[in-house]
Amino acid sequence: MDADALHSLLITPMPYGKYKGRMIADLPGHYLGWFAREGFPAGRLGTQLALMYELDHNALRHLLDPLRG
Fold first, then answer.
1. So what's the pLDDT on residue 1?
2. Rounded distance between C-alpha atoms, residue 8 and residue 11, angstroms
3. What average pLDDT score do residues 20-25 get?
4. For the whole model, what pTM was predicted?
5. Cα–Cα distance between 12 and 7 in angstroms, integer?
6. Distance (Å, rounded) from C-alpha 47 to C-alpha 50?
7. What would the pLDDT profile of 35-62 be if each residue is shown by its tens digit?
8. Distance CA 5, CA 7 (A)
9. What span, in angstroms and rounded, lies between the C-alpha atoms of 43 and 37?
10. Got the DSSP string for 2-58?
11. In which region does residue 17 sit, left (phi positive, over 0), alpha (psi from -120 to 50) or beta (all else)?
């Protein structure tokens, strides 16, 4: 996992849906889980959502804390 990929989760807003405008790093776990079950979108957004899902699912959200500074 590289710092740039993690940092992108903090600065990229969700472009659509119920949580439109919320940073990907701040999306709730149940929403990320829904994507994991239904399928992540193609492209960069899907990659970011999948990474955030893995962080959430494995209780690793704390890895983002030093980057929030």
1. 64
2. 5
3. 98
4. 0.94
5. 9
6. 5
7. 999 999 999 999 999 999 999 999 999 9
8. 6
9. 17
10. -HHHHHHHHHPBP-SSTTTTSBGGGS-HHHHHHHHHH-PPSHHHHHHHHHHHHHHHT
11. left
